[in-house]
Amino acid sequence: xxxxxxxxxxxxxxxxxxxxxxxxxxxxxxxxxxxxxxxxxxxxxxxxxxxxxxxxxxxxxxxxxxxxxxxxxxxxxxxxxxxxxxxxxxxxxxxxxxxxxxxxxxxxxxxxxxxxxxxxxxxxxxxxxxxxxxxxxxxxxxxxxxxxxxxxxxxxxxxxxxxxxxxxxxxxxxxxxxxxxxxxxx
Length: 186
Ligand SMILES: [Zn+2]
Prior knowledge:
Strand 1 (47-48) and strand 2 form a beta hairpin. Helix 1 crosses helix 2 and helix 2 packs across helix 3. This protein is 55% helix and 2% strand. The N and C termini lie far apart (76 Å). It has one domain. It is mainly α. The longest helix is centred in the first third of the chain and has 36 residues, at 8-43. The protein has six helices and two strands. Zinc ion (ZN) binds next to loops.
């Protein structure tokens, strides 16, 4: 701390810095919205149930996508994780709450975080979520997702377990034998 009051020049500089930060965040939010809208547009295939009322387009499930479509969906998810989930909703890393900054290399995390993001998109929409939507999202989606993902036995168990550490060690996923082998073996 200093007793010297900031000069008008310093204040102007601070304001300029803050303005730049706000502009950057605004741009990221706009990018997120744009990506979300374009992805919804791609997935739009209104289903008529014969009664005349059109059902909303099904949300894209990331595990059903491949190639460029998967990359695009992951990029949109990554923006949300970086700018919304991480700063606002992630607790500090500890041995009882590991995390991985390269979460996209853990397929179970991609699946869970994408599902969490879909729920966020629905429940933070006033028409769908109403006034309780964000709270319901936190209770029904955020908490169980984090309980599982950040469990000491979860997919990040071998990654970062201390603040500031940046370990990344994807765990081996359990394997299964194709059904055809089970009938021919033994
Ligand atoms: Zn990792």
